[in-house]
Amino acid sequence: MSAYAIAHLQEAAPHREIAEYIARVTATFEPYGGRFLVHGASHEVKEGTWPGHVVVISFPSIDQARAWWDSDAYQAIAPLRSRHIEGDIILVPGVPEDYDATVTARTMLGALPD
């Protein structure tokens, strides 16, 4: 089942270390089957506020996503970003291809008191 690394990064002033991080990051996740789904694109806010930027990297599994995050290669370059850009980063598993939200809704409704 696919998994995703999702980052919500705040605006940051341009910096050489950020450019170096961007140049090197792909090589850290490719060995784990990772690929960019969203990077450097503008986004459209429909509800609430969402300042900054969104990055989404897809992985074949949550184990592959975790292995990338914990890898020596990624941890070696992570400070190039984190010293200059604040943000939130999560790893999240996707849903199976046959996922049906109506089943989840029925389960929720069945657990509610009458």
UniProtKB/TrEMBL annotation:
All residue ranges annotated as the DUF1330 domain in the record: 2-95
SUPFAM superfamilies (alphabetical): Dimeric alpha+beta barrel
InterPro entries tied to this protein: Dimeric_a/b-barrel, DUF1330
Pfam families registered for this protein in UniProt: DUF1330 (PF07045)
Domain of life according to the entry: Bacteria
UniProt cross-references to Gene3D superfamilies, sorted A to Z: 3.30.70.100
UniProt-recorded name of the protein: DUF1330 domain-containing protein
